[in-house]
Amino acid sequence: MYRGKKVLALIPARGGSKGLAGKNIRPLCGKPLISWTISEAKKSCYVDRVIVSTDSPEIAAVSEMYHADVPFLRPKRLSGDKAASVDVVLHALDILEKNKEKYDVVILLQPTSPLRKADDINRAVTTLFSKKAKAVVSVTEADHPPLWMNTLASDGNMKGFLSKKHVNVPRQRLPRYFMPNGALFLSFSEHLRKERSFYGNRTYAYVMPRERSVDIDSIFDFMLAETLMKATVVTSVRKKG
């Protein structure tokens, strides 16, 4: 049961980004990218506290402007390209526990998934408890089945690129494949400490639609997210009218 469990929403946002400089606070539909995740996390009926883990004073200032807590700055050893997300989460949990704050469940919310809604967070938490799971990871259906994918030889030759039994098979006859969309990772804190992973035998999927599964890593992703956001606003206004 959920009753009595304390839930922490942790938003990781380091300052350096090789793919797109300043990505986490780059404006998206007039607001910093990270603000969209902060806003939806704070709307969740399950989340007790929203914290941003960052090494950047600038990101920290923006996050606090949008009412997230930034009780510490992340150390350099957890701020590089090779830093694992689970280590960032455990670092935050350790600091909070030293300050007498213990959370039963932690939700990792990457700021690069701005289309994720509070309802997605709530439903994922519900999945964690209703399935008696240890962890939940959000996924979305893959655009193309991996049966139609392969690596290419250096000369581009496609000999054996696809299995003969899959070449002329309509997509509708192939199995549905899903992939993590980066929007939600939930786990019981003690389970995460023990396994050091959100994946395991008791991990369940929370399925999200493609239109809320954009994971921003490039300027194209920004353009796509902005287009989808504007389309959602127009649709909402038309329904109200």
Q: Which structural class matches the secondary elements? A: alpha/beta
Per CATH, the superfamily of the largest domain is: Spore Coat Polysaccharide Biosynthesis Protein SpsA, Chain A
Q: Tell me the strand percentage band.
A: 15-25%
Placed side by side, the strands forming the largest sheet appear as 4-1-5-7-6-8
Q: What is Rg?
A: 20 Å
Number of helices: 6
CATH architecture of the largest domain: Alpha-Beta Complex
Outline the biggest β-sheet.
6 strands, mixed
CATH third-tier fold name of the largest domain: Spore Coat Polysaccharide Biosynthesis Protein SpsA, Chain A
Listing every helix as H and every strand as E from the N terminus to the C terminus, the arrangement reads EEEHEHHEHEEHEH
Helicity level: 25-40%
What is the count of β-strands? Answer: 8
Overall mean confidence score, pLDDT: 91
End-to-end distance, in Å? 40 Å
CATH class of the largest domain: Alpha Beta
Number of domains: 2
Structure overview:
- With 241 residues, the protein is of the alpha/beta class.
- The chain folds into two domains: 7-142 and 177-240, Spore Coat Polysaccharide Biosynthesis Protein SpsA, Chain A (Alpha-Beta Complex), CATH 3.90.550.10; 144-176, no CATH class.
- Helices cover 32% and strands 17% of the residues.
- The chain contains six helices and eight strands, in the order βββαβααβαββαβα.
- It has helices at residues 33-43, 57-65, 85-98, 118-130, 189-195, 219-240, and strands at residues 7-12, 27-28, 31-32, 49-53, 105-108, 135-141, 178-188, 203-207.
- A six-stranded mixed sheet has the order 4-1-5-7-6-8, with helices on both faces. Strands 2-3 form a two-stranded antiparallel ribbon.
- The radius of gyration is 20 Å and the shape is globular.
